[in-house]
Specification:
The complex is a heterodimer of chains A (472) and B (207). Chain A is mostly helical. Chain A is 65% helix and 0% strand. Chain A contains 16 helices and no strands. In chain A, helix 3 packs antiparallel against helix 14, helix 4 packs across helix 8 and helix 5 packs across helix 9. The two termini of chain A are 13 Å apart. In chain B, helix 5 crosses helix 6. The longest helix of chain B has 23 residues.
Chain lengths: 472, 207
């Protein structure tokens, strides 16, 4: 039980700035949803909503005209659509990692950022789910992706990783949403109880499912949370593994690789943490959460970015090694072509952003530097988009038949849909920040020294606990 | 403080049952009203000439292949040219008013614009000849044409319907010399003339 002691007992730093009290946490987090939105929020929200509008128009145009409005064409049959899909799913990985895996490993520092990361996960997965839906061409047949009993007497191909993908991402979305919602219940009840108008009371009251903070409620809550954490932990590994099967089970040189599942998972966590970092640093400044999201958090996250970035770099190197070692000339060609062919610019963008930039975090001074953390998080986001682009497009554009080699050019619709998906993501995220407690208040309170059974209150009012506390 | 009445506790159960019922209802309605069994079977368009299969194929017993002569060899079943009608009707009922459009077509050389009844989707590839040479009779897909005054779609021609036979062709195979015999009871009375492996893969029909 020694790990359950006050956090400083096991030689770690305070997880929030000392002096933070229960009341301060409730105030700091709740007031964001109660006070009028700051000007900065409105500016970002209007920008994000405009981009979402562009997304709607571009998708309408796509449905009206067909996928020919994209740059995809033989031999590059998958391009930005699937790049965006994989990119968004990858970003969605940090949420589960932070909320489930770090929870099971008792990494208490996660409490300041898990709500955030989970919300980001859900919105990223929504953006990701958009792309398989719209890339099918005959979009009114998108329901073919699901194994629905139908009058055609036929099922989707259960041997196809594309179907596994539907299940993997669908499960991930469902479990993440449940996990997020269960974690929200006590905090929504706090907002309900603080409500001064009846609409808020009704809405938060409805969402908090009658939470009264009774002992039994907490017991059920803790158990449900633990079960969901245990359920989502394997998903961290499975989802992106299955996404990587979309490529790895094909016979395309550059895709047909057994390293893909671990490599994709590491990349996903890498990009997810980068996106959490980007959003967190902005929200921390805009909503003045410095006391709750401290330098400790930023530094720990940067360490994870460094670790996963290094794994990704190793995977890039190993792909080259295996291409050489396999003796397969198509495989060798694809990798040489990636680095030195017409897409070399994309390849080296990827390498600089994903492999080189996180290496700065070996230095403590740099990984505790907030502007630099922000810049690198953006670099990683860019780099991970390029990673998927490089994998998909450079493998396809020159495969077995040199007579059908080609080069991919994005169209304005490609660009509009990608930018629009960013707009959708930020719209959802800004709405979340405005209406939902963005930091898990109840959980964060549990890492305060006051929450510990062994906590010593100040001299003047600790008569009750004084005697048995230091029994050891 | 109590915000909601106690009765609201039943809401989740009501919503769950409601969603299940609504889902089932929508599925059955779509399945019934939006599938070819409902939307296509019974399609009986007005033709430019009141030609009666009942009279020609039924009462007079003409073989299907007199007019649709290429069906055993071609992918696409032929609609007879005016020439075929005139083989007889230059001698028989030469002044019938009902045949006026045929004579007009014969004199002007403009084809009669028959309305196609059995329409498959553009993305479904269908070959008549391979079905006939396997011993599938006309009546299996077209019904009792010999009893139709006006041709009507008898079978749904839907994907599920095609697959039913592709998965188990036996009950629809008849002796190869009886393919134009409209007696449905001959179906399933013969071994196929060659080992059959009807495709069930996507590219079998969607090429």
């Amino acid at each position: 039980m020694s790990n359950d002691g006050p956090i400083q007992d096991i030689g770690e730093k305070h997880l929030v700035v000392p002096g933070t009290t229960f009341r301060k946490i409730t105030e700091a987090v709740s007031r964001v949803t109660e006070n009028p939105a700051p000007r900065g929020w409105w500016i970002m929200f209007l920008a994000a909503v405009s981009f979402t509008g562009v997304l709607g128009l571009a998708i309408g145009y796509l449905f009206f005209r067909g996928v020919g409005v994209w740059g995809n064409n033989s031999p590059v049959g998958w391009a930005w659509d699937i790049t965006n899909f994989v990119w968004w799913v990858g970003i969605g990985h940090a949420g589960t990692l932070i909320s489930a895996v770090l929870f099971l490993f008792r990494q208490k520092w996660r409490t300041s950022i898990n709500r955030f990361a989970e919300a980001m996960t859900i919105f990223a997965v929504i953006c990701a789910l958009l792309f398989p839906g719209i890339h099918v061409g005959r979009v009114w047949h998108a329901y073919y992706m699901f194994p629905i009993p139908n009058s055609m007497s036929i099922w989707p191909n259960f041997k196809s990783p594309l179907l596994w993908d539907v299940f993997a991402v669908g499960t991930y979305f469902t479990v993440s949403t449940l996990f997020w919602f269960v974690g929200l219940i006590p905090d929504l009840a706090t907002l309900r109880d603080r409500s001064v108008n009846s609409v808020r009371r009704m809405v938060y009251g409805f969402l908090s499912l009658g939470w009264r903070s009774s002992n039994r409620h907490w017991q059920n809550y803790e158990r449900a949370y633990m079960i969901l954490a245990a359920l989502s932990t394997p998903l961290v590994l499975s989802v992106h593994s299955v996404v990587s099967f979309d490529f790895a089970t094909s016979v395309e040189p550059g895709w047909h690789t057994t390293i893909f599942p671990p490599y994709f998972v590491a990349g996903a966590i890498f990009s997810g943490f980068a996106m959490v970092m980007t959003l967190m640093l902005v929200a921390r400044v805009v909503f003045k959460m410095n006391d709750l999201v401290t330098m400790t958090h930023i530094e720990l996250m940067n360490k994870i970015i460094l670790a996963t970035g290094t794994i990704v770099g190793y995977a890039y190197a190993m792909e080259f090694f295996i291409a050489w070692y396999s003796g397969n000339e198509y495989e060798r060609y694809v990798f040489l072509n990636r680095a030195f062919g017409p897409y070399a610019w994309a390849y080296w963008t990827m390498i600089s952003c994903n492999v080189i930039s996180p290496q700065l975090y070996w230095f403590k001074r740099l990984r505790t530097n907030i502007p630099l953390s922000f810049v690198i998080s953006i670099f990683v986001n860019i780099g991970m988009w390029f990673e998927r682009f490089v994998i998909i497009v450079t493998s396809l554009h020159r495969d077995f038949i040199p007579s059908s080699w080609g080069y991919f050019h994005p169209t304005p619709t490609d660009i509009a849909i990608y930018m629009g998906s960013l707009g959708l993501f930020f719209t959802l995220f800004l709405l979340f920040i405005r209406w939902v407690p963005m930091i898990a208040m109840a959980e964060l309170k549990s890492v305060l020294p006051e929450a510990s059974a062994h906590h010593h209150a100040h001299e003047d009012h600790d008569h009750h606990h004084a005697q048995p506390a230091k029994a050891e | 403080m109590q915000i909601f009445p106690r009765s609201l506790n039943r809401l989740p159960a009501i919503v769950a049952i409601g969603v299940a019922l609504a889902g089932g209802l929508v599925t059955s309605l779509v399945w019934y009203y939006f599938t070819p069994k409902h939307t296509h079977v019974g399609y009986e368009p007005r033709q430019p000439v009141p030609y009666s299969h009942w009279l020609h194929a039924g009462q007079m017993g003409m073989d299907c292949r007199y007019c649709h002569s290429n069906i055993e060899r071609a992918a696409h079943a032929q609609i007879p040219p005016t020439q075929t009608c005139m083989n007889c009707h230059s001698l028989v009922r030469t002044d019938s008013a009902r045949l006026a459009p045929v004579r007009e077509s014969w004199e002007t050389g403009r084809a009669i614009e028959w309305v196609k009844v059995h329409r498959l989707p553009d993305h479904a590839y269908f070959d008549h000849s391979v079905h006939l040479s396997a011993g599938v009779g006309c009546v299996t897909c077209h019904g009792r044409i010999d009893r139709m005054e006006v041709v009507r779609q008898d079978q749904p021609l839907s994907m599920g319907w095609c697959l039913d036979c592709h998965r188990n062709p036996g009950p629809n195979i008849r002796p190869i010399d009886q393919i134009t015999n409209m007696d449905p009871s001959l179906s399933g009375t013969a071994q196929p003339p060659r080992p059959l492996a009807p495709p069930q893969t996507c590219s079998g029909c969607h090429r």
